[in-house]
Amino acid sequence: MTKQTYNIEGLKCQHCKARVEEGLKKMNGVAMADANVEQKQITIEYDPERISIREIQEAVDDLGYELNI
Question: What is the pTM of this model?
Answer without folding.
Answer: 0.92
